[in-house]
Amino acid sequence: MELLEGRDVPLGRYSVVRRTLPNKVRRTVGAWCFLDHFGPEEVTGKPGMRVPPHPHIGLQTVTWLFDGEIRHRDSLGSDELIRPGQLNIMTSGRGIAHSEDSPAAKPPLLHGVQLWVALPAGSRDQAPRFEHLEDLPVASAPGVRMTVAVGSLGGVSSPAVVHSPLLGAEVTVAARTPAEITIDPAFEHGVVVTGGAVRVEGLDVPPGSLLHIPEGRAALRFEGAGRLFLIGGVPLEEDLVMWWNFVARSHEEIVAARDEWQAGSDRFGVVPGGQEPLPAPALPMTRLLPRHRVA
Ligand code: MN
């Protein structure tokens, strides 16, 4: 097992997030290629989340809240308010645009995670789609409660559509002695602790860090009192080119997506709400190179 340190990154104009994926030493966990933990942040009298329309290709976004509300709008016409315990999963396929904002009347705290899943070669050019799921299955074991956002855990399965063997779950732990859950030994896993203090296999996982657990384990033991987000999947062997909001396989694909976004192409469409779209940053001077999952 390996503790990966995250870093603070500004998101939009008003928020800072703790990013643990991609990480210098490990770029993916299963097909999970991006993990931001935001908040808990007091948003009363503040704008809260303000992420203007921006594009995605080659990925699914997964939004999960512990506190607060976010309004999602996308170029398919979706307009959904997400609350704690619900899942927003947006499949960009070949192209989509969306915005994410705190609603005008909002609860005092905003706290959650946003993740991306890299779409494998056979799925990444599909048509875009958006799912909002309000009733996710819950499983429990002594001292542990698991809400399954993606995949299967504790004998229950999420209806969310994904394109590789994958797990994403909120786990609350209240256990003075180690509480054990069964996991898929074909998966590698990752844990971010999002509240309280939880030890995993006897190790402290400090806030802002990701604990990586390699394949080959059939169980995980948690102790302490707190909450974590557990991710997992079969290690992704495809090398990825990730830049800005795009997941691709080559420099040329990134350049094409950037050009089409800047030109206002139909590839991404228009997000309702009349907000000014986010311009793409300048490309680096050097060619973007495909990266393997482990540096
Ligand atoms: Mn986005």
Description:
The chain is mainly beta. The chain has one domain (2-233): Sandwich (Jelly Rolls), CATH 2.60.120.10. The chain is built from 1 helix and 23 strands. Strands 1, 13, 14, 17, 18, 19, 20 and 21 form an 8-stranded antiparallel sheet that branches. Strand 22 and strand 23 form a beta hairpin. The chain is globular, with a radius of gyration of 18 Å. It starts with a strand and ends in a 33-residue tail after the last helix. The structure holds manganese (II) ion (MN). Manganese (II) ion (MN) is lined by residues 54, 56, 61, 98, 245.
**Would you identify the CATH H-level superfamily?**
Jelly Rolls
List each distinct ligand once. manganese (II) ion
Rounded to an integer in angstroms, the radius of gyration calculated over CA atoms is 18 Å
The rounded distance between the terminal residues' Cα atoms is 16 Å
The tally of strands reads 23
Just give the CATH class.
Mainly Beta
Stretches with pLDDT under 50, minimum 5 residues: none
* Molecular shape: globular
